[in-house]
Amino acid sequence: MMRKQTLIDTARTLVADDKGLLAMDESNPTCNKRFAQLDIPQTEEARRTWRELIITTPNLSDSISGAILYDETVRQHHKDGTPFVKILIDAGIIPGIKVDTGAKAMAGHPREKITEGLDGLRERLAEYAQMGIRFAKWRAVIAMDAGIPSRACIEANAQALARYAALCQEAGLVPVVEPEVLMNGAHTLAQCSKVTEEVLRTVFDQLYIQGVMLEGMILKPNMVAPGITCSQQATMDEVADATVNCLLRAVPAAVPGIAFLSGGQAAEVATARLNAMNARFKSQLPWALAFSFARAIQQPALDMWIGKPDHVMAAQHVLYHRAKCNQAARRSQYDVKMEEDAQA
Hints:
By secondary structure, the chain is of the alpha/beta class. The protein is built from 13 helices and ten strands. It has an eight-stranded parallel β-barrel, surrounded by seven helices.
């Protein structure tokens, strides 16, 4: 019972006070790819320095409740020797960890992927819990195109997410359950809505079968939007309506919070869409609508830093600003003036 209450308390804290999660859990190849685009050295030390910049941003906990780390990052230290996990905890930010080992080609289903990482997960979760980690994340990747996603892909990924979530709760960690319907493609808003609803319904069926306590988890879904190459793009309000209506049909009220992924949306677009949802629906919803952005918080700061020591403070200022904009979006108080004031 004690562990159950701890899970519930942690899940609620992650979405309390209009805060959200900062995802800084890119795998080394992904992080290196972003560094390469900006001519930053693709080394462990450069990655350590970048992540130190993020977690030492002054007052980041004003708007960030939790940070999702990668296995390399969770073992790294500040240049003064302090473990990163301790820095986060001391700052009032709950440390989390990405535990899946990536999306691999799915046997018998060309163009589709299954996320791996269940083997040995119980032991890894126990180690992370001892290190002070209090929540975890697992991402499933659902692509949309002619003839996909298949039922096989949706069901296999939903079951893996549910088995991961059950193992997390057994270890005393809050599972962040991330079924991402990708933005890539020419699909319409209506098609995205249909597939996202099917994916979410399947995920919650599997969570129920595996005995996952919904009050002690966070859902991290995509927003419902047209594919990036769709000729008919949608307004902010259309995305807000489609997303919230889809969630209302598929996500049980017991879930304390929904923290959206940014999924490659431009930083300001992700923030504005979150703002539109809260402005139109916040008072009617059973769960909090929060954020768990990676690129939409990090990328502007990374573009400012570009690996230069004398850019650290400016990059931290940009990072803090993006986090505050997303907190404002939870309060439906975000507008373009916030961006203009920051640039001024």
